[in-house]
Amino acid sequence: MSELRKDPVVDRWVIISPKRGERRGAFGRIRRMDEEEQSGQCPFCSGNEGQTPPEILAYRKKGTGPDEPGWRIRVFPNKYPALGKTQKLIKKSRGIYKVISGIGSCEVIVETPRHGVSIFDLSIDYVSDLIRVYRDRIIDLTKDPRFQYVLVLKNEGFLAGSSIDHAHSQIIATSVVPKRVEEELSGAKKYHKHTNKCIFCQMVEQELFSRERVIQENEEFLSIAAFAARFPYETWILPKEHRSIFESLTEKEVIQLAKILKSTMNAMNQVASYPPFNYLIHNSPCWERPLDYYHWHMEIIPRLTRIAGFEWGTGLYINPLSPEEAAHRMRQALS
Q1: For the chain, what is the domain count?
Q2: Assigned domain for 204 exists
Q3: Residue 49 lies in a domain
Q4: What are 274-327's pLDDT values in tens digits?
Q5: pLDDT for 150-162, tens place per residue?
Q6: What's the CATH code of the domain at 294?
Q7: Do 212 and 277 form a contact (C-beta atoms < 8 A)?
Q8: Most CB contacts within 10 A, which of 159, 182, 185, 257?
């Protein structure tokens, strides 16, 4: 059984999940090319649906049934979940320490039945369907009153934390708001209190005015090299208008987001030679919505540098590439 433990000094929750130790690549073991994936036994490939838990949602061809071939995108519970959906929500204290039972939901989204193919090499329609799946699963998970936050994330490549090469994303619902998001919410709320403006809207306005870090824009979205980028080519995608709830995306916005995400990732792949990467969607918590001070956004982080002792010990990051130069190189790749 998993549980959440809170660091009493910095108010950071940590998930203790022995189940995760059973998955491939746990504990930093060096991984060779996976023999199962080479021999066609990848559990995420079409035809191997029986190797995964039963599907929750699938976009599939008419006439095909659940847990059989014929799908475009498929969603199912993680076989090795960090959190358990069936656990009871129990809070307790052990002296100065606080513990919460590991309530949550961990889902896997297999983005294509084809092995070795990146979703960003596929059509805009395909990427749009992936965004619709994100939206629909968030809508469903936020109905559970036990969940305070739902995170969409993607780990691409072993160095980015992926244990299976087949293109996939994850959605994780938690009973607490993660510290990183709490810090964003707190900072944004403080700025709004003093200025009556959303800091993210101000960011969009300033980036569009200076153009120094703009990578691309369309009618609805802006892609930028983050001003205080922690990593080379760290990129953010933000709605141009104030939006605090990701799952409120309209169909027009779904397509516009798919277009800018696909082209931004293709530019990154060109300038950084298909790097391992993580991306995540920072959304508002499940309660108290909408928020006039917070703005959902996507963060894309290529894994081109390693976090070492200085970063761990100080929380300060050393980025060897200026965001302005990163944006310039990515703009050139798009031209």
Answers
A1: 1
A2: yes
A3: no
A4: 999 999 999 999 988 899 999 999 999 999 998 899 998 998 999 999 999 999
A5: 999 999 988 888 8
A6: 3.30.428.10
A7: no
A8: 257
